[in-house]
Amino acid sequence: MNCIIIEDQPPAQRILKKYIEDMGDLELKATFADAVQAMEYLKTGSVDLIFLDIHLPKISGIDLLKNMPRLPPVILTTAYSEYALESYEFDVVDYLLKPFSFQRFVKAVSRVPVKNFMHTQLDATGGPVHSRNEIFIKSGYEYIRITVDDIIYIKSDADYSEIFLPDKKCLSSDPLRKWLEVLNDQQFVRVHKSYIVNASRIIKVMGNQLYMNNKAVVPIGRAFKDDFTERFLN
User: What digits encode the pLDDT tens for the residues 49-86?
Assistant: First the structure.
C-alpha cells in the first residue's frame, strides 16, 4: 500500500517512517509538515493510506477530514485522546495515541479495508490487455501479494477464507462475500456456499463435483448448479 505522513514533529515523523519501513508491505510516498501541502499532493497523487496528526499548523487534522470527505483510509496519530470520539464521525480506520508501539501500529494498519490492486493495461488500439493482475490480501497483520490468475479456489472458513494457490495456501482475514466483490465474475464463480472457483482451473466436471488442476475436488451446491451449468457447460 502506498501511504503518506502528515505530521509536523520530526521525532514523530521518524518513528512513523521506521514503523512503515519495518512493516514491509507499506511504501511511503511523501511526508508533509502541514495539511495544506498534503491537500495539494492529494489532488493528483495516488494514496492508499494516510497517517494524519491532529495538531498541525495552518489546518488541523480534523479540519482536513471535514474539508476533504473523500480521503483514502486515514489512521490518526495524536497525543490528545479527547478527539477520539469526534474523529470516528469521519470514519477513520484507527486512532493511535502517542506514544504507540510497533505492535499497536501493525494492528491499526491491519484494519485498513482490503483493496483490489488490479491494473488494467491498454493495447495499441486502446483496448484492455488481460495481464497477470495482482492483489494484496490481508492475512493477520500482513499483506501478501498474489497473482489473481494463480488462485485455484477459495474456501470459506467462518469469517476467514482459505485461498488455494498452485504452491501454497493463504489464510485471508476477509470472508467469502468480500471476494465476490473483488474478483472478476467472468472468471470466478461461486459453486457452493463455502466455495468460489477459478473457472479456468477446472479440469473436469463429474456429477456434483469439480476436479481442479491441483487435484482438489470441490463440491457443487444444489443452489448453485443451474447457474454454473448455464454459464460454463452450455
Answer: 999 999 898 888 888 888 886 788 899 998 877 767 76
Amino acid letter, residue 96 = L
Taking the C-alpha atoms of residue 192 and residue 212, their distance in angstroms, rounded to an integer, is: 15
Q: Which residues contact 230 (CB under 8 A, 6 or more apart)?
A: none
Q: Which domain holds residue 38?
A: 2-110
The verdict on 8 and 106 lying in the same domain is yes
Q: Are 93 and 48 contained in the same domain? A: yes
Helix H, strand E, coil C: the string for 35-104 is: HHHHHHHHCCCCCCEEEEECCCCCCCHHHHHHHCCCCCCEEEEECCHHHHHHHHHHCCCEEEECCCCHHH
Dihedrals phi, psi of 2, to nearest 5 degrees: -80, 140
pLDDT tens, residue by residue, 127-138: 333 334 777 777
Cα 72 to Cα 65: distance, rounded to the nearest angstrom: 10
- Residue 134: count of CB within 10 angstroms of its CB: 15
DSSP symbol at 221: P
**pTM higher than 0.85:** no
Domain count, the chain: 2
Same-domain pairing of 16 and 61? yes
Crossing angle, helix 10-23 and helix 102-110, to 10 degrees? 60
In a domain, 23, yes or no: yes
